[in-house]
Each structure stands twice: as C-alpha cells, then as structure tokens.
Amino acid sequence: MRPARHGMALAAPLALFLAAFFVMPVLLTLPTSFREYVPGMGITAGSWTLGNYREILADSYYREVMWRTLGLGAAVTLACVLLGYPLAFMIARGPARWRMPMMMLVIFPMMLNLVVRSFGWIALLANRGLVNNLLMDLGLIAAPLKLMFNLTGLMIGLTHIYLPFMVLMLVAAIQNIPRDVEVAAMTLGSSRLHVFTAITLPLTAPGMLAGSILVFVLTISALVTPRMLGGPTFKVMATLIYDEYMQTLDWPTGSALAFVLSGLAIAIIWASSRLTRRWAGTA
Amino acid sequence: MSDMMPRRPTAIAAWAVIVFLQVPVLVVVLAAFSTTSYLTIPPQGWTLAWFGKVLSDPAWLSAIRMSLFLAAGSTVVALVLGVAAAYAIAHRMLPGSEMLTALVMAPLVMPSVVIGVAMLQYFSLIGLRGSLVGLLCAHVVITVPYIVRSALASLGGLDASLEEAARVLGATGLEAFRLVTLPLIRPGLVAGALFAFITSLDNVPVTIFLISARQTTLPVLIFSSVEMGVDPSVAAISTLLIVVTGLVLLVAERRTGFHRFI
Amino acid sequence: MSSLSFDRLGKSYDSVEVVRQISLTVGEGEFVALLGPSGCGKTTILRMVAGLVQPSTGRILIGDEDVTALPPNKRGLGLVFQSYALFPHLTVFENVAFGLRRQGVAAAELKRRVEDALAMVRLHAHGGRYPRQLSGGQQQRVAMARALAPRPRVLLFDEPLSNLDAQLRDEMQIELKRLQRSLGITTLFVTHDQSEALSMADRVCVLANGVMQQFDTPEEVYHRPATAFVASFIGKPNRLPGTIAGRDGAGGTVRLGPGCTLASAHVTAAVGAVVEVVIRHEAIHIVPEGADGLAGTITLRAFNGARVHYVVRLDEGVELVAETASSGALAALAVGTAVRLAIAPEAVFAMVPA
Amino acid sequence: MLALGLSLPAAARADELVVGSFGGSFADNVKACHVAAFEKATGSTVALKLGSSSQFAASVRASAGASDMDVIFIDNSLAVQIHNEKLNEPLSRAKLNHAGEIIPSAWGVDDSYVVAMVSATALVYNPMLVKTPPTSWLDLMDPQYVGKYAIGDISGTSGLQFLLALNKMKGGTLDNIDPGMEAIKPIAKGSVVLYTQADQLVSLFERGEIAIAVWYPDRAGVAADKGLPVAVAYPKEGSVGILPVVQIPKGTKKIDLAHKFIDVVLSAEGQKCFSERAYIGSVNKGVTLSEKVAKIAPTGETLDKLWFVDPDVLSRQIPGWTRRWQREVAR
Q1: How large is the ipTM?
Q2: Which of D52, D53, D54, D314 is most worth mutating to test chain A (most A CB atoms within 10 A of its CB)?
Q3: How does pLDDT run across A261-283, given as a tens digit for each residue?
Q4: CATH for the D119-241+308-328 domain, from 3.90.79.10, 3.90.550.10, 2.60.120.10, 3.40.190.10
Q5: Do B164 and C81 touch (CB under 8 A)?
Q6: Where are the alpha helices (DSSP H) in chain C?
C-alpha cells in the first residue's frame, strides 16, 4: 500500500482542475436559481426567492416534461439493452473473424456529427421521408405514419446515438463471465435458455447496469437531437432548459430546472449503483 | 467447449442492429452527392460540387482544424489528468476517492447548456473568455469522465503484483507504470480516448458560448448554419470527416487491437 | 550473498497489529521458511522485506545495510510471487531481462545472463514465447529465472508452489531446493504448507497472529514444539476436549473421558481447567493386546501408500486416529480388532483453547 | 496544430472589429455587402461571430458589460431587453454619416439600436398547388389545405407574429392574448409541423408536403431563386414587420470603429446590396429596390400596412406568451 501523499499528488491535478473549471462555474450559477426574473428587465439583483423551485414543483407542465424526460431516458435505455444485448453477445461469443469488423461497425456511426445525423433521420422519418414513401409504395400504409416530433422519432434518434455505448459496455461484461460457470450449469441439466436467464444474464447485470446508467444520464441531458427530432411539441427537460436560457432569457427558472434535473440524475445514479453493489454482493 | 454460442436468431438480430446503426451514415453520405441545394434523399442527380465547395472554403477548413485540434488537445490533457487520478483511485491511495469519482462523473449529468453559460460567466470573470485555453479546459471537463471511467475499468482488471514485481526488479514507480501498467491498460485507454475525442468533436452546447469570433468549431458552424438553411455541403463535410476518422480508427485498431479490450 | 535480519519488526493497520516485534536473522546462504496459517502476518513480513509495505516499527537489515527506508527498486532482492506476476505483454526473454535492463546491463552480457537464467530452470528454448503460452509449472520457473537473473542479495518466495498440482509441487520443491543450494543464495520462503517448510528449509519460523512462535530447525520444530500452537499446527493432530486432572511440574494428567486419563509432559493450565488435548497421529502407537495402554477397537482403516491410518474407538467412547507404517504385522489389522494404544507423555499437549 | 493554437490569442487584435452575425446566407451577405466595404474604407478587419439573436443576448448578459463583440445583429425585442438591462452603448448619430438618410422610426429608444433591415411574416405558397393566391391569414383554415400547411413555433419570429396577427384580428390586444391563443390552437394542431428553424420548410415545400405556410418573404425569395416553387402573398389584414437591428454591446473598446461599421450597414450601397441579395426591405430612404425584389420584400403599400409591434412590450410579454404556448398550444 502506497502512502496517501502519493495518491494526493496523483489525484490533486484533476481534483483541482475540476474544482476550478467545473465546480466554481456551477456554484456561481446556483445563486441565479434563487433570483427573481422580470420579463423584459432581466434578473433582479439582490432578490432572493424560492419561487423558481416552487413553480417547477407546482406547475403541471413542468411535471409532465420531467416525467416525460425520465420516461424517455428509461425507454431509450431499455431499447439500447434489448437491441444491444444480441449484438454484444454476437461480438463476444460469435466467430472470431466477425469480431473486429462488427466492433468497427458499432463504433463507426459515432463519428457522424449529431446535427448532421439528425438531418439524416429527418430525411428518413419525415411524412414524405424515405421510410414513409417506401411503406406507401409497398401499399402497407395509406397515410404517412407520424415518425417525428413525437416519442417515436426521439426514441429512434437517441437509441441510435447511445446504442454503441451500451454495446461496448455489454461486450466487456459478457467477456468477463467465466465460461466454466455456464458449463457447470449445463452439466446440472439446464437448458440453453435457462443457462442464459439463470447464469449469463445475472452475471452481466452489473455491466448492464453500468451501461444503463451511462445511457440514461446521457439521454436525459441530450439537447441537439431532442431539439431537432422532438421539436416544440415534444419538449424534454434539456430543451426546456435551453428555451429558458436562450428564448425567454429567464435564467433563474432555467438554472432551477437544471439543478432539479441534475439532482434527479444524481439520485438515480446513486440508487442504481447501490443496486449494483447489492447484485454484485459487495454491499 | 461451452454451448453458450450465439445461434442463428441472435446472429440475425445482431446484423439487423448493425444495419440500423449504419442507416443515417448512408443517408448522409448519399445526400452529399445530390445536385439539389438542400439535403434530400434519395439524391436527385449526382455531383461532387459540394466536396469542392467545402474543400475550397477556408471557413469550413479552419473549423475542421479547430475541431480536430480541440478534440485531440482535450483528449490528451484529459488522459494525463484522468489516468493519474484513476490510478490513485484504483489503488485506493487516497481517502474520499468515492467523492472524487462522483465529481469526475458530474459533468455528464449537468445539462450542457448550463455548463456552457456557467463557464461563460465564470470565464468572463477570470479573463479566460474567448481564449483557446478556456475552451480547451471546458472540453477537458466534458471529456475527462470517459477517460476516468475506462481507466478505472482497465486498472481494476490488472493484477497489482505486476507492478510490484517490476518495482522489486529495480524499476522506479514511474518506470513500473510506463513499462508494465501502461502497456497493459493502453487498449482500454484507447477506447476511453475514443469516446472523449468524439464527445469533444460533437459538442455544441458548451462550445457555442466559449468560442471567440475568429475561431469556431465544426459542429458549432454546422449548428449555426442550420438556422439559415442547410445545403449538402454539411453532408459533404460529414462524409469527409467520417472517412478520415474511420481511417484513424482502423489505424488505431491495427496498432493496438483495442477492440478486444473495450 | 548477504544475511537478512529483522529487528523488532512490526506492522499495524488502523491500530490492529498484524506483525508484532519480530526479530530474527537469516544467515548467509540460509533457507528460512516463514510458516503459519493464512492471516498470521507472514506475507506482510515478506512484503516489508521487499519494500512493498512500510513497517510501523523496527528495522530490516540486509547484511549490515539498513534497508528499512529504501524503495523496493533499491533493495536488490528477488521476489517470486504466488501468482508469478509475469508480465503478460512481454516474452519470456524480456520478462527475465527486465531486472537486468533496470541495472543497465550491456546487450551481450544481458543476453548471456538471460540465457543462463533460462537454462538454469531448463527453459532455454522458450525465450520467445509469451507467458500465456506456458504451463503453470513453466510459468513458475520463468518467475524463478526472472528473480534470479539480476543476482539478488536475497531471494523471497511468496507461496510460489501453491498454484501447482500435487505431483508438480513435489518436483518443484526438490528443484527449487537444489537451485538454492547450488547458488547458495539467502532465501526467505513464505508458506502455509508445513511439509513444504519442513522439507525445504534450513530453519523454520512459525508464526501465529503476527507473533513468532518458534524459530528453529525443522527437526526441533517438529519434535519439540515450543508452544501449544506449534504443536497443533505441525503434524496431523488429534484434537480432543479434556480437563486437567493433576499437575506435576511442567506436566500432569489430563482426563479425556470418565475413565480415561493420559499423562502429559506439557500442561500449563490449573487443575480442573477445560483444555484441548493435542496428540499427533504418528505419536499414537498400536501395541499388542496385553501390553500397557488404552484399550479400544478399530472402527476404520485407511491405506494411503506409505502409511496406514486407523480410527480407534476407546472403550470410554473417545475416538483417536493412529498411524503406522504400511508394512508389517500392524499394517493389516481388520476393522473390529481390539487393540491397545501407547502414548508417550511428551507427545501429549494440553492447551487452553484460544 | 501547436502553431494554430498559438495563433489564436485571447485578446482581440487592435484593428479588428468583432461582429455578431446570424449564420448561413445572412453571414455571406454581411460579408459581401458590409464587411468588404468597411475593410476597404477603414483598413481594419472584421471577424464574424456567428450565432442567433438569443445566443447574442445570452452571451452579452453572461459577459456582464464586457462583451467580446463590438457590434451585434439582433432582433429588436431582444435589443430592447439588452437596453433595459443596461448592457449596450448608445449610438451617436453624430458619428454616423448616413444617419439622416434613415427612416425615423428605425431608431430605438434612446438610440439604443438602429434597425438594419425590414422583413415581415407573410404567407408563402406553392403556385403549382395553389391556383388562387391566398389573401387572408384565415385562408390557412381553408379545407383544401387540411394537412398541407405549416406554421412556426413561438420560439421563431413567424410563430409569434402569426399569433399576434390572429390575436389582433380576433379582437385581442397586447395585454390580452386570449383570443389569439384560442384561435391558433386548432391551426397549430393541424399544422404539419411547428417549425423551429426557418429552413425546415424548404424540404417540406420541395417534397410537396405543404402547399402553404406562414413564412418569411426573404427566405421564400432566396429559395425561389434556387428553384423552389414558392410565391409570397401579403395578407390583407396586414403583415407583421420583423426588424433585425444593429446594436453596440457595452464594453467595446472600439466604439468609433463600431460606428463606422454601422454606418456602412446604413449606407445606401450597403442597404441596396443586402436587400437585393436577401429579398429584404431597406431602411435607407435613398434605396430603390429592383422590381424582382420589390415584388417580394415589403415595400410601398405592403410596407405601409406592416404592423410594427412595440418591442418593449414584446420583450416583457414574450416569456409569458411562450409559457402559455408551451402549455396550451404545443402540448
């Protein structure tokens, strides 16, 4: 065990850096959320109020957006797990020659700029986009499906962004399972399905949970994609905060919303990492 | 040999997901060749004009340079700061390491618009506004979580006695890290650096507040032109960027084989 | 070569003392085993010698040099880890060359010394391989070669054989001992395996709960255990509940059952005290019917090649395990045979349970 | 890379003016019409910082009286807000040679800004799909357009102005938006999209997804030049005027240079150049627009009928209206 002063010396640069360039700016923003905002006049100096927070809790619109954001986070996370697991399993356990190409194809789309990627989706998902045109030409639907400015479009766009993150974390988790355990279960008479549900899945749960936390957090604070694929009719917390900051210039409400969102996210991370520890048997 | 190998349905599902991941890439690449002056799919007529336009426009080129510089610079700084701290955390060398971990991850949680405005206010106060240093620091803040996360994971999987063996064999602490630990965690770090690089390369909400008039980044330039209409040159530039980063990715893979360690 | 000494060496973690005031000297070229159950502090001592753990008290000397404050890379030691800790990203050759490169040994000399070291462990053909391509035994020998190549002043082993299967372990014991002898290198060997310690070491240091129990030759430790702990830890003991029936100097009598008493040469507790009675299997001798001894009946016989074990139920109901050579008349007693057991008082230890 | 880093110093160069401009074609036009002339006249250089009105407002506020921009293009309501927050330098007409050529109503309160161009919110339609040009805002409700029209979200100027136009038609006032909100609800529900970026409509028109929209004549003019099938109609109830302004944020060290730039913007040449390229109305009385532009940009009678909403009221009311819109219209 090395002395603590070495640890301090190693960790201090990052700790000080974050203190100077993250904690300080954010702390300076905190008072803003307790200020009063007068439209057209700006932030009233010297006023202190809890009103912004009270309004967030009392206003049914804010509550709706908050639940929608959390719901969206959960839905995208779930979609990423469901779509990502077979792919991760294939990468981790499939033929070795497919490993590298598949991995590259997972990482590759991450390189596409988010704004441009959203344009790509718009071209695909619009009422007269590629998908609707194809379906109509095939005679499968009579009128275009609404694929944008609603949950569907946002789910598709956000799942596409965060799926690679999930796949990469799941691959690592699946690789870490000792194969003997699965063989042991099989010799004890388990079917493939049972081995998967009773052994493989629980053993990858911590990795899956870690990936889920990451995807969830990134989803609920995503801005560009919700703005472009969700539009004004499907607002989430991040776009609402953006609007308060950038459209109405009501920074006090905006920062109060931001701290509420951050608080929610931290609470969820904390709760789920406790859950992970319990699953992993270390709590 | 274990029987838990993917069977045909799994393989089909996996390839379907791979296809899903490539779809918008294909759309954008195709749109880059369209003769229309707006983004459209399928392209109407084929042209290379947009590539020519982008490659001859100094604004796009300098934005690309700026973005790549910023992404590379912040990734390097984040690697140095992040790996050192992760090392201390992983080896339980300091009290309160859980708090430090939480602090490092916090920028992921905070909505980035708020970080952007907060930093603008703060940088105005301390005189860093519009400076490259300030922008670099901001990007380090948003990229360092990915580095620390992957470094912690890599270090956690490492046998602590390897470094001790090196020490007993006569290596100094730094030598032991350089000769033993670093080569072993490098693939994990490459993966973390990849996330960091992409995060920096894609960032709009923080960057947009901190750039100065003479420097802008690619995503900010694209984002600001959205308001005034997007022509296929953004698709062309994205295509170019994808090709370049794709090649970098392949080279990195060749050199480190990092895909096996993600 | 140098000697290795501890002077009141101690280590505490958060006020828990895991190593208490150990003083001993490993002579030049001597092979000393640190023996004890897991958690006794032996590995901590080894890591303090290596410089991987800072002692809380006391000093460590190599020869006349006080190395207590030196970092591990300045101590000139060789250490073979339980996990071998071979560098997975380096070839066998580079693993062995690692320490030499730290010393700045010139290329030609380095090559020669690496090859010598590999030849010494009979792996000269394996220099280009990676550790994962070797068997467990081969990895173990690479670890040896790597530790020896820089010509350390003292060689340290941390349970190096515990990951090998039984037969390989026996072979390696002999090989390792031969190597140590031929090099004449001062060696400290940590193990929890008494047979390993007894068969390999010149002297054995038995530890319990961070306290040195006995430091002596294997013969002394085995035949004249200094403490009750040593008596129960070395050899294969019968452990029975009993009470002290009488005292007589350092000895006395213990009562195992209503009508069963034994003379013991090692009694420390007062009359009436509840004790644990420890008697090694091989100290219990089966004697012919009619001779003096405790009467009982054989209930189980187990043959393991060199020895035969009998479980004998005494008439008073107590069960004891006795052991004899696997040939001769006493080796072929059937289950149900009535026998008598003779036990020398020197072999009976009455200990107050911890 | 390193050289690039070092060549980007924190402090602006002494002879360089930083101008906050909208991006895309707007920036191209500013470069062509204003920057070139300014650089030629003064020998100084201009760096354009691209962004939106609200980004500039946010940035000016965050930098609290020490803005890194010397001149900004910004919507008039936000310019008023910046003035209310005391974050701007007043314009000095004495330093502007062309001040006298400007229509009087272009000047902001206390000369806190000056209008740089005149645009409007009007109806834009696809003449291939719409045989009779629309004449009224309410034509949107015509059954033939069901599922084939689009209006903007309140976060964009056109959405807000359409709301105000409807409100006025239904008897509302700037202090009572209820009639407008009620009227716009069904229209918003039927809109193909509540667009947030003006150019979203380009692809909608192009794909024939919409036949008519509440949009900007200048955008329509530029798009028509590129081959988009669109024409402009000013509703008889009167359109609502859009006034992008120029303003000097507080803290600039180049106040004279900033005035010189604004002078170029206001000059007849600058105005004419911008108008012709962008299909936008001029504030310089000496400018006569070409017929092609005059047909689209607000001039003459359409200009006279434009309704210019008091920006001071706007800046105070917009946050409240936005909230109501979010909750009642877009929900």
Answers
A1: 0.77
A2: D54
A3: 888 888 887 787 777 666 655 43
A4: 3.40.190.10
A5: yes
A6: 42-50, 92-103, 107-120, 136-148, 166-183, 194-200, 218-223, 228-233
